Amino acid sequence: MSDAPVVVGGYSDVLGYDELSSKDELAVVDALADTRSSEIVVWVPEWLGEEKSIEAASSSDQVFAGVVDHETENAWLIVQPGGAEDWIPKSQGVIFERAPDATLPTPQRRLDNQGGAA
């Protein structure tokens, strides 16, 4: 996996990562839609997500939001509001950041806004 963040301007920018299920793709976009400009969203495999002490950001236990407070050659230290923090190995995580001009309505949010969700 890459050290560089994936810059997300729209839902389609999250597609194409074989590791992410469609549920995780939606969770990443939903989390990015709710982040501040300094925050990132990171996806990790299920086994690693279960071990993390930071709070999941969305409907997936594999998606977390926070600020990269420190970075080493092998890991990012993710800090969340309230002070919770944990290290994410670069070899296991994918970091996503919101593009300044991002438009991030997910298919589910579009249905909710149109009153089409049950």
Q: What features would you highlight for this structure?
A:
single chain, 118 residues, alpha+beta, six-stranded mixed β-sheet, globular
Radius of gyration over alpha carbons? 14 Å
Characterize the overall form.
globular
Structural class: alpha+beta
**Topology pattern, helix = H, strand = E:** EHEHEEEEH
Mean pLDDT: 86
**Number of helix segments?**
3
Helix content: 10-25%
How far apart are the first and last residues' alpha carbons, in Å? 37 Å
The number of domains is 1
Biggest sheet, spatial arrangement of strands: 1-6-2-3-4-5
Q: How many E-type strands?
A: 6
Estimate the strand proportion: 25-35%
Main sheet?
6 strands, mixed
Question: Can you tell me about this structure?
Answer:
The chain has one domain. A 6-stranded mixed sheet has the order 1-6-2-3-4-5, with helices on one face. The radius of gyration is 14 Å and the shape is globular. Helices cover 20% and strands 26% of the residues. A hairpin with a 5-residue loop joins strand 4 and strand 5. It is built from 3 helices and 6 strands. By secondary structure, it is α+β, with helices and mostly antiparallel strands.
